[in-house]
Amino acid sequence: MLKQVHFKSSALPYMLVAPQIIITLVFFMWPASQAIYQSLLIEDAFGGNTQFVWFDNFIELFDDDHYVKTFVRTLFYSAMVALLSLSVSLILAAMADRVIRGTGIYRTLLIWPYAVAPVIAGALWAFLFYPTTGIISTALTKIGYEWNHQLNGNQAMFLVIIAAAWKQISYNFLFFLAGMQAIPKSLIEAAAIDAASPAKRFWTIIFPLITPTTFFLLVVNIVYAFFETFGIIHVVTKGGPANATETLVYKVYKDGFIGLDLGGSSVQSVILMVLVIAMTVFQFKFIERKVEY
Amino acid sequence: MKKIPSPVAKISLAAALTLSFSTNLMAETEIQWWHAMGGVNGERVEKIAKDFNATQKEFKVVPVNKGNYTETMTAAVAAFRAHKQPHIVQVFEVGTATMMAAKGAVYPVEDVMKDAGVSFDKKDYLPAVISYYQTTDGKLLSMPFNSSTPVMWYNKDAFKKAGIDKPPVTWDDVEADSKKLQASGMKCGFSFGWQSWVMIENFSAWHDIPFATKENGFAGLDAELVFNNDNVVNMLGKVGEWQKSKIFDYGGRRGDSLPKFVNGECGMWMNSSAYYGAIKKQAKFDFGQTMLPLNPAIRKTPQNSIIGGATLWVLKGHDKGDYKGVAQFLKYLSSPKVQAWWHQETGYVPITTAAYELSKKEGFYDINPGTDTAIKQLSLNAPTPNSRGIRLGNFVQIRDVINEEMEAIWNGSKSAKDAMDTAVKRGNKLLRKFEKANK
């Protein structure tokens, strides 16, 4: 027979979780509720004239084909950033995993970029590619390729993708390397004895075994590209030229902080919020189960 | 028995001391001034405040740089909403309609002066400058501080090398001169910055064609954009063509294309007269400024250009006594000596007739020929409803829209007609939104 255990209720556990709950309420729930409230208002910049308009702001946003374009662009951008930084760091990790001498130096150097703030990373790449004076752009012009990301939208997109991906490589590298080192050496040695080439060993043994890491990093990278690359975009292109590098988050900033359209900007934040919730649920409910651990 | 002072007594003694100190300091009332002037101009702003503080003991003006124009305006709006607003904030001309609509927040400069009993005569100010900032019944809302207008900068050395003997007057000249410059080895003919302001707003005023209905928005919130007319579209279409052969080369928004001019890549550059200081510092060649080019097919002679730059707005919500200091400071700021100095150092237009006369008397324009181009452009003719200025709500965003669409012309992804039609359509949506928010 099942016996029910009753603990004496005490205030202590509540007190212990209180700081976390208070932080969540003050820094997450309160601003989020404000954003939702604000998204139902039309207001002048100084807040002197406020009208409650229900879902007018939402209707207007979905009516705007520029928003849809920005949405698609953001998806493309995130996918490219994730793909590029994951593949490069996978190669680097596979290489670093095989290095015998000087491991510490390699690893340290590869991890360095992670310490660079997004804005600095952006400025770095912006300098390298600055159309009139940048080193790389000058070199490109010398070999006959016209580089001007202030004019050419595709080049601008390429540049922010590179800058954002570069910044994330170190992080991915760390996780990949840790994942690879956790694979028992005996497996790889056994394969080597059976005359499997290094490439074969990688694709048939190492790669499948680090799938959980890869999946985790995929989600982290997409979230990173979505929400944390604002600084890079702001420094490198400011969303231009002609909107070519404007992501959802950048549009929230532009409409809210530059345009002072708080209602319209809040609607976009609310949509982003829903998106994050959906992504998190998706991650936990569906994909994690399918990944082999 | 000795009496030992209790800790409480000690604390209250300390508190009393601090209090008396702070009341001593309080005698000097602080006036917060948020501005958007970075670099060298930021230092000049500091100097103005310091000099004013030295003239009297009652008030202390504290200038704070809040980033660029948009950032400063956003900061002031956010501060106002949190009841922490500065006394004075510098707002660029594009934000004028937003500020005007903020009735509970803004303390009109004319009232500030009157309430503080500081003498103030609007006639002292240049009409082209203050007409931008007056209500329909003529009340001055904000104090002009740094006003400029776009001019054509040109590289005199490069012109000489290319065998061009005089600066361009018409757009045909610009094209011909550009080709000559390129033939002499230059990479591009001309470039410009603040493109919506220079190439659409001022192009329209210069040729006396409307930018928006309702006198460019001066006569009401229900104005509609009309800059997708043939004159503007043809002009921009041509510039788009020129981009291909580098007669024109785009170099980014705001002043981002300045390096193209000072590095000697492009021989001509159209942007604010206020780049005088920067060009003087960076250019290693002899340069000059001349009036904006004209298209004689649209209009035989130019009308007048419109101003840009910023004004100082006084925000409500402080003690009445503070505003006396504000009024004194604004008075000091527009005195001929300060204004003439500011104008000569920066290239901004002098805002009062007296400052202009003083600069003339000091021989500034004789030593630096061409530096009066801006003021001549502004006062070329009496402003018409098309050339008085532009007063549209959400104009910060509208300019962004225009910038985006213009960039689409330069990179060839849209025709000039298509881009301008879209810009007008998107811009009108923003205007209706502003109208709705400010009923």
Examine the secondary-structure arrangement and name the CATH architecture of chain A: Orthogonal Bundle
Quaternary assembly: heterodimer
Order of helices and strands of chain B: HEHEHEHEHHEEHHEHHHHEHEEHHHHHHH
Q: What structural class do helix, strand and pairing data of chain B support?
A: alpha/beta
Helix percent band of chain A: over 70%
Please report the first level of CATH classification, the CATH class of the largest domain in chain B: Alpha Beta
Number of strands of chain A: 2
Report the CATH topology name of the largest domain in chain B: D-Maltodextrin-Binding Protein, domain 2
Coarse morphology of chain B: globular
Largest interface: A-B, 32 and 40 residues
The average pLDDT score of chain B comes to: 89
Instruction: Tell me the CATH architecture of the largest domain in chain B.
Output: 3-Layer(aba) Sandwich
Distance between the termini of chain B: 77 Å
Strand content of chain B: 5-15%
CATH homologous superfamily descriptor of the largest domain in chain B = Periplasmic binding protein-like II
Helicity of chain B, in percent? 40-55%
